[in-house]
Design a protein that fits this description.
Layout lengths: L1 E3 L15 H29 L2 E6 L10 H21 L4 E7 L20 H9 L8 E3 L8 H10 L18
Parallel strand pairs: 1-2, 2-3, 3-4
């Protein structure tokens, strides 16, 4: 199991004042390092016949004043979706996990949620073994749940499954 939690953010809010080096640094950590890790481990997981990759993404990609960080997380989501398609039919599952805005050094103490509240939701991509790759697990519906309760709720929830190339498609085992 590989859980990619890499992330750095830019403090530059003016999208026309961002230096190209900010892009390089943030994409190096938030996208390229994760690509390198995935490229290293996924072929070995496929050969072994089992593996889980979880890439932590952020819906901040849809928020203003987060140009570089948001762009890097959008790129990570696309990369993860492509990798999910590529591992379809193997016993390797690649998923995304979105923890929400958390009280951390990066998320700031202004964030509404303590890290501990997202743990159960963030463990779901490791625990769910249904062969579906490309899914985004959003932690906030499971804030304050035990791991067991989050698992039960996720398994009981209706699933929207898309076939083919659609945004946020998930890929079922062949």
């Amino acid at each position: 199991v590989v859980y990619n939690v890499a992330g750095v953010i830019s403090n530059v809010l003016d999208c026309f004042a961002v230096d190209i080096n900010d892009y390089k640094q943030i994409f190096q950590v938030n996208v390229f390092s994760i690509a390198k890790i995935c490229n290293h481990f996924i072929p070995k997981m496929i050969m072994r016949g089992f593996g889980r990759i979880i890439n932590v993404v952020s819906f901040v990609k849809d928020e203003p004043k987060a140009l570089v960080y948001g762009s890097s997380k959008a790129a990570l989501m696309k990369m993860t979706s492509e990798m999910a398609y590529a591992v379809n039919g193997t016993d390797v599952i690649i998923s995304m996990a979105e923890p929400g805005w958390l009280k951390t050094a990066m998320g700031t103490m202004n964030a509404p949620t303590e890290v501990e509240k997202c743990v159960a939701g963030m463990l779901l991509p490791v625990l769910i073994d249904d062969g579906i790759s490309g899914r985004i697990f959003v932690a906030n519906p499971y804030y304050n749940c035990s791991v067991e309760e989050a698992y039960r709720l996720e398994m009981e929830a209706p699933k929207a499954i898309f076939y083919g190339e659609k945004p946020n498609s998930v890929y079922l085992p062949k």
